[in-house]
Amino acid sequence: MLRLTADQLPVFVPFGIIGFYRYLWYTIRIAASLAYQPIPLPEHPTYVANEDVTIIVPTIDAGEEFKEAAHSWLVGRPKEILIITEEKMLQPLQELANAVDPERIRVLTVPFANKRLQMAHGIKHAMTDIIVFADDDAIWPPTLLPYVLACFEDQQIGGVGTSQRVQAVGKRMTVWEVLAAFRLTIRNIEIAASTHIDGGLPCLSGRTAAYRTVVLKDPEFLHAFTHDFWLGKYQLNSGDDKFLTRWMVSHGWGTYVQCCKGAELLSTMKPNWRFVKQVLRWTRNTWRSDLRSLFTERYIWTAHPYVAYTMVDKLINPLTLLAGPVFVFYILYRSFIPVENGGFHLPWWNVLVSYLVWLLVTRAFKLLPHLWHRPQDVIYLPAFILFGYYFAVMKIYALFTLHETGWGTRAGIGDATAATAAADGAARVASEETQAQRPVIEKPRHTVSRGVEPPNFSSGRLRRKP
User: Fold this and answer.
1) Element (H or E) spanning 81, and its range?
2) Angle value at C-alpha 287, between 162 and 216, nearest 5 degrees
3) 417 exposure class (CB count in 10 Å sphere: 0-12, 13-18, 19+)
């Protein structure tokens, strides 16, 4: 750590090798995100929403916010919306669907709440070329579907994501929602940068992501998706978006993310302390998935080396972040020791004030894209700094509790024993029906018309041919 401590400049500057690395890394991300360009809308699109898109929404407790979200989806004119819920929630969800559009919204059920089982059930009933998964509170701009479909003009693309922004649950954002908004701002920069640099990204967010149906109807995928275990014995219910992203990479499909206003969705976050439990679940999912990507599957190293590097960076990030305050506390301790005995000659208050100012200025710089649009959120910078250190400790805690696979913010979800039994039956039925429904790609545009070989069904694997 470099310290400008001469009497001519009696200010403590907590900037050293780690700081240089962190901000060089961030500058590269900013530059790449600025160079990124979304795929423009084609003049004559191959895919149109009213023929080619089914929206699948797994939910158990959709409320009034569902109506606003559903109306925003319908503006894009999808062919069908499938709401997948548990049996006991059929009536209230059916009433919500009827209040919005009973002709284009169908409500289907599974025996109990299990997100992956619900998603697999929706896949089984989808009959279009593109499936879009959406959270029940994801509000889309009118142009989101056209922008998403534009990416599938490239026949190598198997999955497409979007940028995101937080919508307040109440009249104004709580501190928890602002923290979530800060995190999404940083995430939007990261995914734009990685997409520009090597075409990959760590995760196609489950809030809204689109996939080719042929990939998802593969019996091998359906079985793996509903029988995903950590360490061979802890069944995973959440982390579906991470699994889908890894499947794209391991099976040779490209991904893309549309980071632009035309494809930027709004999503609500937990407006209270439950946001922390939400982040803990996401953190565990990230640990499990990234460790698999880097050390078990290892496709990411050759397919998207930049993304692999970002994953390694996130593995060590808690240690580099916590190193800063540890060094500062050490220097504070030395400031109380006489200089002649090897102490630090700046007074403790100089060190502390300099460090706090440094944190505020550098974090404000990091959040400039957000503060440019919402300058009033600058008052939450101290909370963001404190949450950053808390999050570093949380990541370490999450690493040692990866066996905990419960949902965390929704009761009654994640019964691994029941899920295993139901998943066996669901996967078997899905496999049987998929065999009968395989000719889902009816139009030659997917294969011969664009000079791309069709997916190879004979091997039972939907691996895109190079």
Assistant:
1) strand 80-86
2) 50
3) exposed
Q: Where are the domains of the chain?
A: 30-309+406-442
Contacts of 179 (CB under 8 A, 6+ apart): 275, 380, 383, 384, 387
Cβ atoms of 451 and 145 within 8 Å: the answer is no
The residue type found at 455 is P
Would you say 23 and 325 are in contact if contact means Cβ atoms under 8 Å apart? Answer: no
Count of H-run helices and E-run strands, the chain: 17, 11
Helix axes 416-437, 219-226, angle to 10 degrees: 170
Pairing of strands 130-134, 53-58: parallel
Convert the pLDDT of each residue in 157-180 to its tens digit. Answer: 999 999 999 999 888 999 999 999
- The pLDDT score that the predictor gives to residue 52 is 97
pLDDT score, position 359 = 92
d(CA 245, CA 177): 26
Angle at 74 between CA 158 and CA 152, to 5 degrees: 20
d(CA 204, CA 386): 28
* C-alpha span between 313 and 307 (Å, rounded): 10
Q: What is the pLDDT of residues 357-372, one digit of tens each?
A: 999 999 999 999 999 9
CA atoms within 13 A on the CB side of 329: 5
3-state secondary structure (DSSP) of residue 130: strand
Does an H or E element contain 148, and which?
A: helix 144-151
Low-confidence ranges of the chain (pLDDT < 50): 1-2, 4, 416-418, 427, 429-430, 434, 436-463, 465-466
Please give the structure tokens belonging to residue 376. 């009033």
Six-digit token string for 44: 């004559």
According to CATH, the topology of domain 30-309+406-442 is Spore Coat Polysaccharide Biosynthesis Protein SpsA; Chain A (3.90.550)
Q: 315 vs 99, 188, 413, CA distance in Å?
A: 46, 20, 28
| pLDDT of res. 456 | 43
Q: Which helix (H) or strand (E) holds 266?
A: strand 265-267
Instruction: Give the per-residue pLDDT at 405.
Output: 87
Task: Tell me the whole-structure pTM to 2 decimals.
Answer: 0.87
Contact 31, 104 (CB under 8 A): no
User: Given this model, what pLDDT does residue 6 score?
Assistant: 53
Side-chain half-sphere of 240: how many Cα atoms within 13 Å? 24
Indicate the residue type of 21: Y
